[in-house]
Specification:
The structure is a homodimer of 266-residue chains. By secondary structure, chain A is an alpha+beta fold. Chain A contains ten helices and eight strands. In chain A, the strands form two sheets. A six-stranded antiparallel β-sheet of chain A has the order 5-4-3-8-7-6, with helices on both faces. In chain A, a hairpin with a 6-residue loop joins strand 1 and strand 2. The first copy, chain A, is globular and about 60 Å long. Chain A binds a DNA duplex (30 and 30 nucleotides) through helix 3.
Chain lengths: 266, 266
Amino acid sequence: MTEVNSSTDRSADAPGRSVASIERAADVLFLFAQDDQPDLGVTEIAKTLEISKAVVHRILTSLRERNLVVVDAESRRYTLGPAVLQLAAAYRDRLDVRNLAMETMQQLSAATDETATLSVRNGTTRLYVDQVTPAREVRMTVQLGQPFPLHAGASGKAFLAFVDAAEREAYLSERPLEAVTDNTITDRDALERELDQIRARGYAVSLGERQVDAASVAAPVFDADGVTAVISVCGPLERLRPIVTETAAAVVEATGLLSVRLGHRA
Amino acid sequence: MTEVNSSTDRSADAPGRSVASIERAADVLFLFAQDDQPDLGVTEIAKTLEISKAVVHRILTSLRERNLVVVDAESRRYTLGPAVLQLAAAYRDRLDVRNLAMETMQQLSAATDETATLSVRNGTTRLYVDQVTPAREVRMTVQLGQPFPLHAGASGKAFLAFVDAAEREAYLSERPLEAVTDNTITDRDALERELDQIRARGYAVSLGERQVDAASVAAPVFDADGVTAVISVCGPLERLRPIVTETAAAVVEATGLLSVRLGHRA
DNA sequence: AACGCAGTTCCGCTCAGCGGAACGGGCGGG
DNA sequence: CCCGCCCGTTCCGCTGAGCGGAACTGCGTT
C-alpha cells in the first residue's frame, strides 16, 4: 500500500510557534476518529503514533480529565468521550449558513423525497455538516464531519468548479486525482472539461463517483465573498438517475434563493 | 472576592499525572463551546482563563494546525474548526443507538425477565429494530421491521409524546386514530391528555392497546437533537400489569443513562 | 511457577514552553 | 494627520514541566 504520511503535508503551512504536546493530544483524538476499531489501548496508540507509552498515558489522563476520552474501567481501553459532542454542537451553532440552509434542505428533501445535504469546504477537502433525510425505508445517509476529496462526487465538484481559479489550479496540480470508486474522474483534462460544464449549467452531477450505488446533484451556495457551502440532493443511484434534470432544477432554484439571503449579488 | 484557584479543584479527582498544556488547550476549546459569542480573540481568552497571551496564542496555533479551531484572516479572531465535527461523528458511530441500546436492553430484559425492545420512528409510523427476549417459556416476541401507528401502544405513544409539538399536531390532525384493538385510544382529547401525562412522568404504559393480551412500558431515548429511539419492556398483560410502576422506574433509569451517553443535555 | 503483555508509576535530566517585554498594525478620537 | 490605545504576534532567556527508560503491578496463558 502506498504510504501516505499525514504528518508531512502539515508542517508546510505552520505559521508560528506551537505546542507539541497539544498536537500530540490532537493526534491521539484523531486516531480514535480515523480507525474503525471501537476502542484503543495505550500500547496500541503508542506504537501507531511512535511516542512512548508513558506519554500516551499522560495524554489520555489529561483528555479524560476533560471528558474528551473515557476509559473502560475493566478493559482499560479508551474511547472518545461525550465532550466532543459538546464541541460539535457549538461548532454547528456558529455556522450561520447552517441555520439558513436547514429550511432550504427540508424543503428540498420534502420535494424530492430524498436526502438533502450541506457541505462546507476545509482546505483541499470538504465535509458534510448537516443532512435532512426523507421518511422512507430506503434512503441515503451521509457521514457528517468526515473529510472527502473535492474531485469525487457532486458536492466536491461543485466546490471545485466555483472556487476562484487560483485555488482550483492549486488543487488540480498539487493533489493526485485518486479514484474513490471506479467512476471517479481521474483524468485532469476530463475533470477540467467537467468543471467547465458545471459552471455553465450551474450544478454538478455524480453517478457513483464517490459512493458506488449512490447518485447526487449539487449546487453552490454563495455569500458576498463567494462560494461558502454546497447543497446536494442524493439517494440510491437507480432511483435518482431518471430524474436528474428535474432534481437539478429544484436544487439550483433553492440554492439561488438561499444565496440571495446570504448576501450574494449575481 | 474570594480567590478561587482553578488548579485546586481539579486535582481532587486526578487519577495520575497529566499534561497541563493539554488541559489548558481543552479549556480553550470549551470556552468556545460555552460562550454564546460567535468568536473569541487572544486577549479575551487570556483574561478569562488567566493565562498569558503568548500561551493562548501558541495553544491556538497548535489547535489551528489540527483544524480544531480556525482563524478569520482579517479580524484575527478564532472559532471552532470543522475537525470537531469529525470527532463527534466518530463518537456517534462508536456509540450509535443500536450498539449502545443493546447493552441497555439486555440489562432491562435480565432485570425484568421480560422482552426489551428498541423502536425507531419512520415518518408517521414506528418499527422495532431490535429485541432481547428472556429465557422463559411464555414470553413476548415482536415483529421487527413492521410499521405500527404511533397512537397505539406504549412505544408509539412515547414517540408521539416527545416529538416536537408541530409534528405531533400534524400526526393528530392528519391521521385518523384507528382502533388497533378494543383498548386503543381513539378519542383525540383523551389521547392528548394521555400524552400530557406521559410527558409529565417520563414514560408511557399500554395495557393491550396494540396487541390484545400484551402490556408494555416505554420511555424515550434522546440524543442532542431530540428523541431518536424508544425502549420498551413488554410481556403478557396479566404478568406485567401488577408490576407496571417498578418496571417503569427501571426503563426510565435505563433510557436516562443511555440518553446521557448519546449526548442529550437535560 | 514462570512467562508475557497489558497499563501504570517512578525519577532524574533536559529542552519545551512559559511569560515579560518588545514589535507592528489597525482603529478612533483629538 | 498624528498620536495613543489595544489588538495579535514574535522574541528570548530561564526553569520546571514533562519526556522516557525502566521498574512495578496485575491479569491471562503456557
